[in-house]
Amino acid sequence: MAESGTATRPFPATLVAPAVERHFRVAGEAVIRARGLSRRYETPQGPVDALRDVNLTVQSGEFCVVVGPSGCGKSTLLRLLAGLDRPTSGSLELTGPGGDSPTNAMVFQGQSVFPWLTVRQNVAYGLKLRGEGRVRRATLADGLIETVGLTRFARAYPHQLSEGMRQRVAIARALAVDPDILLMDEPFGSLDEQTRFLLQEELLRIWEASRKTVVFVTHSIDEAIVLADRIVLMSAQSGAVKAEFAVPFGRPRELLAVRSEPRFAPLFNEIWSLLREEVTTARREAGGRH
Amino acid sequence: MSASRRRRRALEVTLTLMAPVLLLVLWEAFSRAGKLDPIFWPPPSEIWPTFWHLVRNEDLLGDIRISLFRILAGFVLGSVPAVALGLAMGMFWPVRVVMMPVATAIYAIPKIAILPLIIIAFGIGELSKVVIVALSIFFLVALNTMAGVVAIDRAYRDVARNLGAGPVALFWTVALPGALPSIFTGLRLGLGFALIVIVGTEFLSPGRGIGYLIWESYQTLRIERMYVGLIVTGLMGWLLSLTMEALERLVLPWHTSA
Fold this sequence. Notes:
The complex is a heterodimer of chains A (about 290) and B (about 260).
Chain A: H1 18-23, E1 31-43, E2 46-58, E3 63-67, H2 74-82, E4 89-95, E5 104-107, H3 119-129, H4 134-147, H5 163-176, E6 181-185, H6 193-210, E7 213-218, H7 221-227, E8 230-234, E9 241-246, H8 255-259, H9 264-285
Parallel strand pairs in A: 3-7, 3-8, 5-6, 6-7
Antiparallel strand pairs in A: 1-2, 1-4, 8-9
Chain B: H1 2-32, H2 44-57, H3 60-91, H4 93-108, H5 115-122, H6 126-150, H7 154-162, H8 167-203, H9 210-219, H10 223-251
Helix pairs in contact in B: 2-10, 3-4, 3-6, 3-8, 4-6, 5-6, 6-8, 7-8, 8-9, 8-10, 9-10
């Protein structure tokens, strides 16, 4: 999908700080192609397949959301995509701009903001590792901090922030390195619903300005529908892809409008009926725990 | 808000000072009432003049300085390599596996028990006193440092690796800062150990130092002088731990319990 013009954006351009806007390379090509991707872990109780034979293609600039029951290997998939772990078999092909391998940044599940760095230092962390100069680091970090609405807290330490604010820092930190692919592992999973709704809106706003390729993992069907271009449902016991759903809502999106769309409920029900099978299977496999 | 906080702080200081003052008052009262044997429990009002006498005529401050130097020199000599070893043990499991049995075994030995060995190796001079202090805190700090590194949440390492950190950057930006609270716990405990060990060592080695003052006064039954030594030792311990806390607040502004 091509970069939409400034005029069509549903928010004032100043909402994404200019320094950040310039920093993002426009519509960088980044395609993910996984074929028969599997990851097996050896445990004292024998081998466990966290991921088995996953086939998945994510197009450039696509917002792909992965849903599935707990323990279906969603996080494993992201770790493989991030290069933090290697597959035991199968192929993973990542194509970046100009055929180079694309860069990625991950927003992790739960608390991942460095407690020993201030908000600004956290956001600038990746830039510092890349050897960016102090001035450029500060400009970009401050722009991103402004974008996620934390300017007043730039010098604060994470323990002085609420959980929602810390997740904003984590998102800004991942965006700071301008990755070709953004990986998000249940980034809003531990937030209360109000904060979650706010952050979903913010994420979409930022994403619509950058149009990065996104793989977003969640266990919330609602979250999947409001954010995704395409939803991938993973199976519980086999750790494979069970179904895919194209989300029929256009961009840019108003989350409230999406939730009150007539097509929202049928899609929700369709996903839930499939997911429900998976969850009950997973429960049975686990020995009837409830 | 700030007024109520100031009142709270004033109350804190009052309560902090109340216990030792009350103790001194009781001691003085019982001693004067003849309930305590004045030979072994002289009233505080008699210890105070002895303190001034020692400061003026017998270089008490010099003794304090000498003991403090031994503690601090030993502290630096012991803690710097201990932090390095602890970080290595935390980051690399082979180092941990090799060092763990040795470290835990030596950690368990009361360090004063190896004073003879240290005197054989380093003589009876200043060096042996600095070395025993260093040794007494080395394993404590090393083990605490290691525990600190091991306890760092895997998520932080993943974030750093994901954003492109190599082993060197991982060390400086994750392992070291992440382990610092635990390192400081080790250092604080180590400082206490250092004081215990240096007083014990000075008991056994005639010369200068606050420990020797206590021991010599006891041997010659000059009990007031012994009490001066005890009180000075207590104050030294208190001041050292205050300094350590201040240092911790300075180095770890992000640590909530600091």
